[in-house]
Amino acid sequence: MIDPFGRKISYLRVSVTDRCDFRCVYCMAEDMAFLPKAEVLSLEELDRVCSAFVRHGVKKLRLTGGEPLVRRDIMRLIRKLGRHLDSGALDELTLTTNGSRLAQYAAELREIGVKRVNVSIDTLDPQKFTAITRRGQLEKVLDGVFAAKAAGLAVKINAVALKGINDDEFDHMLAWCGEHGFDLTIIEVMPMGEIGAQRVDQYLPVSLVRADLAKRWTLEDTDYRTGGPARYMTVRETGRRLGLITPLTHNFCESCNRVRLTCTGTLYMCLGQNDAADLRAPLRASEGDALLDAAIVEAIARKPKGHDFMIDRRHQAPAVARHMSVTGG
Ligand code: SAM
């Protein structure tokens, strides 16, 4: 699949549920209303759509959410998708998780063929962790992280930079990741969805985080790319990678190779734009995949050049109304 700007679309991110056991302050409102179950694609339907994308040349599939591991029977879907790894059609099957249930599933994930996972941890301070997630337990998440490591999964830690909340912690997190053999990616907060708080109060430019870390660590630029928004460097002292995702201070659209599917079957061709294609109707309209295939091709032909996120005092409203938990980050 080649989009109108010549970009090869080889990466599908799938939000398998909008539900989550955490309510991170920058991601969701405290009183989120979740989707009625009838609107959500069944595991069989998710498998059908993912498999259609694999047929169209998708090589990398990431399951996300909401929290993917809270979806009932999710391992049934992951196991089924594993057949595309076995056949060689898919290069990578992976997931982004908050880690709360990773201890339970890590070994099975590895056995299916998952090689790495991204785990979101914004702080290593247990009290702060519970405050940011509004209910999470750091200890459980760390159990999950170390179970993943023990199972042979590579772990990347994702941390969102939050002004006045975790800006004093990146030094420690970088050292901790180095000690345990994890890569670390630091993410700028993006203006997605109403959260009952002012984004401008949370926004910390990652360029400032980098400048501060560079005072104590040797950050060597690399040309390692995943086609995604992160720019990677190697931390000489630890040998691990540090990724920076800067949607606000640096636009990452020119190399975008991805599209995002929600758990209701809506395909967003850009994280920061509202245009979307409904794949649920063609999916449910017939047992064959001809309509679904046509809808996918039509959607890719509409992938926009990029987005235009902005957070400042004059732009207080979210750039897009949906929360990150809808499109899965
Ligand atoms: N529950 C899983 C997790 O915690 O990783 C997967 C879904 S979560 C929406 C995916 C990632 O998006 C997490 O790393 C989270 O911190 C990040 N995220 C959520 N809202 C965000 C926002 N407004 N700006 C930047 N990152 C955000």
Could you give a quick summary of the protein structure above?
This protein is 31% helix and 18% strand. The chain is α/β, with parallel strands linked by helices and 329 residues long. Strands 7-8-9-6-5-4-3-2-1-10-11-12 form a 12-stranded mixed beta sheet.
Account of the 3D structure:
It is a single chain. By secondary structure, the protein is α/β, with parallel strands linked by helices. It has 11 helices and 12 strands. The chain has helices at 43-55, 74-86, 102-112, 126-133, 138-151, 170-180, 199-202, 206-213, 280-285, 290-300, 324-327, and strands at residues 11-15, 60-64, 92-97, 116-120, 154-161, 183-188, 219-221, 230-235, 241-245, 258-261, 266-268, 276-278. The protein has a 12-stranded mixed β-sheet. β11 and β12 form a beta hairpin. α2 (74-86) packs parallel to α3. The longest helix has 14 residues, at 138-151. The protein is globular and about 55 Å long. Bound molecules: S-adenosylmethionine. S-adenosylmethionine is lined by residues 20, 24, 26-27, 64-65, 67, 96-98, 120, 158, 160, 187, 189-190, 192, 324-325, 328-329. S-adenosylmethionine binds next to β3, β5 and α11.
What shape does the CA trace take?
A: globular
Sequence stretches where pLDDT stays below 50 over 5 or more residues: none
What fraction of residues sit in β-strands?
15-25%
What compounds are bound to the protein?
S-adenosylmethionine
N-to-C order of helices and strands: EHEHEHEHHEHEHHEEEEEEHHH
**Average pLDDT number:** 91
What distance separates the N and C termini?
Answer: 22 Å
- If strands are numbered along the chain, what order do they take across the biggest sheet? 7-8-9-6-5-4-3-2-1-10-11-12
Total helices: the number is 11
- Rg, Cα atoms, Å: 19 Å
Outline the biggest β-sheet: 12 strands, mixed
Structural class of the helix and strand makeup? alpha/beta
Q: What oligomeric assembly is this protein in? A: single chain
The percentage helix is: 25-40%
Count of individual beta strands = 12
